Every structure is written in structure tokens, then in C-alpha cells.
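Protein in question passed on here:
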Amino acid sequence: MRIIDLLDERAIDLELKSMTKADVIRELAGLLEKAEKLNSIEDFLEAVFKREKHSTTGIGYSIAIPHGKSRGVKHPAIAFGRSLEGIDFDSLDGKKAKLFFMIGVPEESHNEHLKVLSRLSRMLIHDDVRTELMKADSKKQVMEVIRKRDS
């Protein structure tokens, strides 16, 4: 499964408005809803917030990857958001998160979200990928950065 196949331009926002962790989770879920990837945003949000209670998905390096497995998701999808100022996401390194990838998978998925999470993490460990995503000035550029690294 390729990351680029799960990402839809309608689910990309280069100027997130949120200032808090809870709000950015809602904003990203709203992108997935706008891209018609959800059956129920409420069900999906419940799964994502439940997951966040176990441990943060702010992995450090300015990255957060909130995710949820829910009957509220039609099929596997990813939303991408960026905050140039950063948002406190209880990240493991104590720094604000600036790049957000929200993963949604249907309830009946087995370990699909873990595979996507692993693939995304391997891609984002590279400084140049994070730098290119921070500098992207269009949704098309974000898609191109992901496409280039998603082989």
C-alpha cells in the first residue's frame, strides 16, 4: 500500500487554524470528511481520541501522526496538515508539532494502519522530506514530495 494512494488533495491543508491538540485532531478529521473518506466523523473522532489517551502520536521531529481504526471510516485514507507556528501535541521530544498526518482505516482492517504508520515514519525520518513539506507552497507540491519518496 502506497501513501500517495491514500492521500487526496481535498484532505490537505497547508495552513491549519487550530491552536490545540484537540482542535487539530478535529480539523484533520474534518479534512477527511470533506474528502468523503468518512461515514461518521463522530465515530472516527472517538477512535482517534481514545488512541491518544493511551499515548501521544506526537513522535518528535515536528511530526504527529494521529490515527484511528473505526467503523466511521469508509476506506483507508490520510489527511495532511501543516502549522508553521507549531502546535503543542505532547510530542515525545517536547517540541511543537508542525507536520500532521492523520490516518483513518475501517474497523475491519487488520494491521493496515500499522503498515501505513510504519511506511510514513520511514519516509519522515529524513530531514529533507520534512524540509520539503515545510516549504511546499501548494497541495500539488505536497503530493509531489510524497510521490517522490513513496516508491
